[in-house]
Description:
Elements: H1 15-36, H2 43-50, H3 61-65, E1 68-71, H4 85-90, H5 101-105, E2 122-125, H6 137-146, E3 150-155, E4 169-172, H7 174-186, E5 191-194, E6 209-213, E7 237-239, H8 248-256, H9 293-300, E8 311-314, H10 341-368, E9 380-383, E10 390-392, E11 400-402, H11 404-415, E12 423-425, H12 430-433, H13 453-478
Parallel strand pairs: 3-4, 3-8, 8-9, 9-12
Antiparallel strand pairs: 1-2, 5-6, 6-7, 10-11
Helix pairs in contact: 7-13, 9-10, 10-11
Amino acid sequence: MTKLPSWLAIRPRSLSTRFILIGVIITFVIALHTFDSPSSLRTSDWSSILSPHQHHSSCTPEQWSSGRWVYTPTSDLANLTRPEQALSLAGFEGCAADREYKWHLGTDRKERWGRFPNVSSYRWMPSSQCDVRPLDGAAMVKDYGGEWRVVFNWRCAQFHPFAFSSHFPNFIDSISENHFFSLSCLLYPHVRATPNHTENTPYDHAWQQNLYLSPTSPLISEIAMPEGFSIKNTPLVSFRRVDLLLNGTELNALYHSPAFSIEPDDLDSQELSSQYNKAESVFGDDAFWSLSPSEYMPMFLDSLPDANYGTLVVSTAGHWTTTTLGAFRDNGAGKHAGFGILNVLAFFKVVIRAWAEEVQDAITEYRKNGGRRPKQPTENITAWVNIPLELAVDSGLQHKIPGQRFETEYDELLSSSSEFPDIHYLPIERPGRLRPDAHVSSDCLHIMSGAGVLEGWSHYIWHFVTREGRRKDMMTSQSPP
């Protein structure tokens, strides 16, 4: 039998002494490794292991956006010869939604087919700091069913993470509709979509679109649905257009109110367009579709079986132009001042505060009255300005203003204030900015499904709602009062 070193073979007066000695030895060995190894342990490594609040699956929006695109083809096809091949190139089995099907998949113009298969052969790999589950439509459906639901907020999206306790409520703008269509592909064949746009033409942009759990999905037996949930009537995801966060009456009222004024020190004086008197209406000639939070928040917070949303995903900025908001159009200012676009930005700053106040007040009042979601501890409203590249001043001009200016306003309002504890800004636009090839065939603003950009948004929002959001809730609940 091997003899133990004498310093371990001593006869202690008690068993506890031996444990103390062993602990000292282990600590000494770890200390040597820490100072000697090039990949030594750091204090942060220990804190992440020992912290009672640390969640295993962690990835901040900034860490997610710090990744890179990786070439990962899902098909052996060398080129696109039929529109339906775009599905297999993207790794889709099909898509539940049918509105502008070929346009969403980027196959409506044959002269643009040459970008396939490369455009569908990349996936986003987040920073190595991220620990996220692989993108999996079936796993998302299970979560939708049991833990979250989404509403793509009306061109603002209500997005409800999974748990049949909430759904994706609604999207806001047309890019949100791109996102909704992509999600209908990711979740297929486990979801069905309404309405049927093929049978109901012409369609109205104001129509609400929904994704429901398909009664033929093999996942049904694996989902713990809350009491009152209806496969037929309770949507997992809903979309409605809300181009400008508020409705026309509210926007005009804000425009004429003392809350909105443009002073020389509000903006960079070198970029400030010429001064103007307020017009009778803030709107120009461009059509838009928009709703008030007073109209969609009651739906968002409604109960089963008609609704059980848990997350509202808001995407906006695409219609904040000097043609939609014609009162700010200033041709005399010239291209250098964006024909008045910076005045639009000043108005946007006022509107997002009014929107955030109304949404937060609705959630606060809901909780005060005892409202809560089954299996969903909180309703997380994810405010997310979604501008893939740059926001054009209008479709007829080449002059553009960086979308980051709009995103900065959201970030400053929501990230540094405790006024809106249930509204979060997700700065995850960088992957889209790196993919100018991922636009639809007809313009450089909308994004096609299957290129990985929209799917990446769904991937991170799924992670944020089911992992980051819960971790933050847990940390808050465990913090001392």
